[in-house]
Amino acid sequence: MPIYEYKGETMPHQISRRSFLKGGLAAAGALAASSVPAAAVSADGHGHLATLLDISKCIACGACVEACRETNQHKHPEPQKPFPKMIPARAKNVDWSDKRDVDDRLTPYNWLYVQSTYVEHEGEEHEVNIPRRCMHCTNPPCVKLCPFGAAEQLNNGIARISDSLCMGGAKCKTVCPWKIPERQSGVGLYLDLLPTLAGNGVMYKCDRCYDRLAQGELPACIEACPEDVQSIGPREDIIREAHELAEEMGGYVYGEKENGGTNTIYVSPVPFEKINQAIEKGKGKPHLKPVKDHMADGNNLAAALAIAPIAGIAAAVGKFYKMTT
Amino acid sequence: MKENSIQAKPDSKTAFWYLYLASVVMLAFSGFGQMPLYKRYYIADIPGMAWSADFYTTHLVHYIFSALLIGLASYAVFHHVLTRKKSVALTTSGYVRSVIVAGLLFSGLLLVTYNFSGVSLPMWAAATLLFTHVGFAMALIVAGLVALIGRKPWLKAI
Predict the structure, then answer these.
(1) Which end of chain B, N or C, is surrounded by fewer C-beta atoms within 10 Å?
(2) How are beta strands A9-12 and A124-132 bridged, if at all?
């Protein structure tokens, strides 16, 4: 396993299930325990950990989906019924609690699913399977624009929603370029405030097993994958390795630039435009289109906020000068 | 005396007053629009108001009118210091509203900073900052209404 010094600590370039198992569980556990959290304070400016998904390896076995559901079961909602009557009626209760087994889309109980399709590229038909979940954007709109501060970006780049603070207004879903978070009504803080008039449950999505990472363990989907589809490591290493892999296979990269950059990098042997055309898209089934940086317009406009006081002061000085002369 | 006439007709009918009113009204509207209210409560269904349900648009509108308010606040402070500090002073209502506007701008600028890539806050800090900002906004609305009903000007002649 390639090792290098990282902010004074020894850590692996990246960790996959195979490398985790290779060194023996105990040794790998100790390594992961010392290394994964260390990456959470890495020095690339963000300290983000990213995942690399080589989708040429994915066979859609569903092990990652199953592992995610089992590992995160304790975080899944247990709603109180009957749900509060919503006013106005336009606000609808959303209930997935009787459909917990749905695994062909994202739901509050299914934070990861596998999109499968066939794509013809350069005269060859490719079976393409893509594990889909939150992209964990480097500047996540779901976190930055939540009006209640109910979401946070951890130092290691994980975007997570607090089920104790979230009101279920679904703004995070609206502003998410991939519409990832899913709502469950009948649970959360809104029940204690104005349940009929404000809020509508809690939004759920992949938190990349932040609690496991904090304990030095791999996210469940990475650990469970028998094909080593995913690996995790400091973002700059993952980006470099994604490009090396893409070059090796004559493939394509998705997630590096989308929405200003994400911490989920896909590498595919076929263009993502073709995959996007072929996959089933819609509710709970995200696209794979190019995505502009949604936070950029606002952040560019922030320059106007810096100029505004100068303009104000100039006007006051101008008026003073006019009066004195 | 000119300043006394300003006090008698408190800051009204000046370009500054209209711009301040426009910025405060639009900031309040776009600010509350950061919560998912306008679609749920049919505001966005009013012809010409569909934009109010687009969070990115209301976000930009909030930034634009924040720039206006910052410009006006800077102008007001420097204009006061340079030309009026010997003739007029803040009333109690004016002082309270100035402190609230300062708090609003400061917390708002922290939120602008938070929106940049590479800046993150613990959940408790982000929530505290957001609710502080909303608190200042509510306080300014209340202080503005009290001043309007009680006909309390910002300034008084010395």
Answers:
(1) N
(2) unpaired
Instruction: Tell me: pLDDT of A146 over 70.
Output: yes
| A316:B40 CB<8 A | no
In chain B, which residues have their Cβ closer than 8 Å to the Cβ of A310?
74
Count residue pairs from A and B with Cβ separation < 8 A: 141
**In the predicted structure, residue A30 carries a pLDDT above the cut 70:** no
Rounded to 5°, angle at Cα B38 from B33 and B40: 135
* Structure confidence at residue A11 as a pLDDT band (50, 70, 90): very low
pLDDT value of residue A19: 59
Complex ipTM value? 0.88
Instruction: Measure A33 CA to nearest chain B CA, in Å.
Output: 23
| pLDDT score recorded for residue B12 | 57
Q: Check A295 against B115: CB less than 8 A apart.
A: yes
Alpha carbon A272 to its chain centroid, in Å, reads 18
H or E stretch including A10? strand A9-12
Distance CA A277, CA A289 (A): 9
B123: nearest CB among A145, A165, A171: A165
Instruction: Supply the DSSP string of A31-96, one letter for each residue.
Output: HHHHHHHHHTT-SSSS--EEEEEETTS-----HHHHHHHHHTGGGS----SSPPPPSSTTS-----
What CA–CA distance (Å, rounded) separates A163 from A9?
34
Question: Is the pLDDT at A28 greater than 50, yes or no?
Answer: no
Nearest to A175 among B56, B83, B129 (CB): B56
Output the average pLDDT for chain A: 89
| CATH number assigned to the domain with residue range A3-294, chosen from the 4 options 3.30.70.20, 3.30.750.24, 3.40.50.1110, 3.40.630.40 | 3.30.70.20
The pLDDT of residue A16? 66
Enumerate the domain spans of chain A: 3-294
Q: Do A298 and B60 touch (CB under 8 A)?
A: yes
- Tens of pLDDT, residues A222-233: 999 999 999 999
Q: What is the mean pLDDT of residues A28-54?
A: 58
User: Taking chain B (158 residues) in consecutive chunks of 10 residues, what is each chunk's mean pLDDT?
Assistant: 41 81 96 96 96 97 96 94 87 95 96 95 96 97 94 89
Of B66, B70, B83, the CB nearest to A312: B70
Residues of chain A contacting B59 with CB distance shorter than 8 Å: 145, 298
Instruction: Name the region of A209 (left: φ>0; alpha: ψ -120 to 50; beta: rest).
Output: left
